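Running this now, will post back.
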Amino acid sequence: MDNLRLILFFSLAFILMLLWQAWEEDYGPKPETTVSTQSGNGSTAEPQVNSAIPAAPQVAAPSTAPSIANSTAPAAAISTAVGDSITVKTDLYTMEISTMGGSILKAFLNDYPASLGDKENSFQLMKAQPPGLFIAQSGLVAAEGSTAPTHEARYQAADSSFQMADDADQLMVDLLWTGEDGVKVTKRFIYNRGSYLVTVQHIVDNGTGKPWMGSEYRQLMRTPPDESTASKFIYTYTGGAIYSEENKYEKIDFDDMEESNLNRQVKGGWIAMLQHYFLGAWVPPQDQTGTFYTNVYPGNRYVLGAYTPTVRVADGANHTFSSGFLAGPKLQEELAEIAKGLDLSVDYGFLTVIAQPIFWLLKMIQSVVGNWGWSIILLTLLIKLVFYKLSEASYKSMANMRRMTPRIQALKERFGEDKTRLNAAMMELYKKEKINPLGGCLPILVQIPVFISLYWVLLESVEMRQAPFIFWIEDLSTKDPFFVLPLIMGVSMYIQQKLNPAPPDPMQAKIMMALPFVFTIFFAFFPSGLVLYWVTNNVLSIAQQWYITRQIEQQAAKA
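Update: finished.
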């Protein structure tokens, strides 16, 4: 196989894929926006509460379905200034929770440095100020005549700092709220060692002397990322996503939220805000039917949330609303254990069925060699071995074409500008020598899905973040700081051109000569892990092509 042609086919296919994705975003089906008045769990639930979920700092007037209020406050007002904050430290998290509503305002991931070589500061996934505002809110909405703490209610905490003990496997943090009518609510955060999943509970104790009715909501609020810091060469998705058994994994991007408000009943599932390598998500009880919703507010604040059916709590009784929350890396195995389909947040697109086995194999190799760079090289070698026969057929076709170059040149001189007779003579020559000029195309087309899948695996896997290789390459997820790998790739493309038959069209020949330079510039800004794959693939292709071409030429010389 001509690896240069493979790159061209790959580029074309990749561009077509991006165009298709853009078309889907602009003209494809949008999320449903139907409003349901049916209760989520049948006869055991009361009708939905006719009260709005508030947005800081104002409370909306009652409406037919819970929604976020149209607050006029700027996004910057949503900060620790709205209430005291408590700090929670576990083996994986350092979180800041506001006593105003128990909102999660900050989340640092202890195992992930903020930047390469920074051993002092952890990566901050959530924060309460733009740019990059990203917070998690939850609360209760009570029916008329009852009270409940929304994310604007002020809680009390026993301390301002909580830390998981070295010999403990669990940490429990309680916030307390008491209503004027005698309702008591404990908002409890349960952290478990070694897990990014946090159980968040609202425990309602009804001492009002009458039944209490209400529902729980959980939501994620964030602003779009700072475009000035985004890569101009690599696209990664930032926005909402939801999962349901009926519709599976769906992206709900910011444009979707601008266009219409989502309001859909879903059993189980999950909601999330995604970004490159990381996510924040709420995971409702999987046997519970709730409602997923979206809203957009001033200051480019986008909200993706879910609320439960209304629950009736008898006087003197209690009820616990419970859901899972996580803010962490997209580790596929861990996410799959938390909720069905949550691992799909590592988005490989429509080639997921191919990409996931490739990632599994890459991870298995890494578990043996202990280095992601060498794992990429070995994986590339295994893929080349799998497609060896297809590549061999392609290289043989090209070697025979190269052997025919002098005779084709003689035909061009003979027929001059008569294209019709020249093409007829060339077809006759191919038929006589039993050469298929398109023999190298099918093997390339078969391999394209695999190579695109590998591209997404190397781009989307958080395991690549700050993963070192050797020498100067300390992070496979960023560009080569000295551009050595892109230069090697450009040289390898040039060598491949010399092994291939020259194009008969002079203009085409000039374009082909310029491609190694163009692709060197293009790949200079790609993550070094991706460039390492292409360099390895090129080197292996050169070796295979040289060997097969030499065999064809030796056989022709003996004949």
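Residues 3-15+356-403+439-558 form one domain. More later if anyone needs it.
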